[in-house]
Amino acid sequence: MNSPIILGFLMMAACVAIQCLVVSVLLRLLLHAEKRKLVRPGLIGTTSTLIAVMLILMAGNLGQIAVWAALFLARGEFHDFSTAFYHSVVNFSTLGYGDVVMSEKSRLLGALEAANGVLMFGLTTSVVFVVLNEQMQKAWGKRVNGG
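Given the sequence above, the corresponding structure tokens read:
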């Protein structure tokens, strides 16, 4: 199981699982907050909700980045976690500075992490959009119904 493609695909599957777990927890938190009337439509309520959603989802993305960094460290690509994490952030976010590079045997993992990052940031963006859309629907419903 030393193949970069197999490892990369396994890591991508793990990242999807992490993000699904984070989204599941986030949805439970939002439902709980809504039942307690803590989520309100309007500028302050929507802004607060979106900030919380974004931070929680970003924590999930940082967790995925850390998992990739741990893989790079385990493969002996870097000598310390901070360098592996930095490299992983650059890959995951597709910045691609190129100031820190991996060996030829693992180079493909960097590209797979970048592809994974694009997909995960897309998933993150879609969840933020769904929450914003829901807030907007409630605000419009309140205005149309005279509330």
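The chain is about 80% helix and 0% strand. Try to locate this feature in the token string yourself.
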